[in-house]
Amino acid sequence: MKKILAALLVIILILAVGFFWLNNYIYQEKQADVDTSPAWKNISYVIDGDSITLGDGYAEEENIHGSDSTKSTRYFGNELFTDLNSDGREDVVFLLTQENGGSGVFFYVVAALNTTDGYRGSDGYLLGDRVAPQTTEVSQNPRHKNVVVVNYADRNVGDPMTAQPSVSKSVYLKLDIEYMQWGIVVADFEGESI
Question: What pTM was estimated for this model as a whole?
Answer without folding.
Answer: 0.76
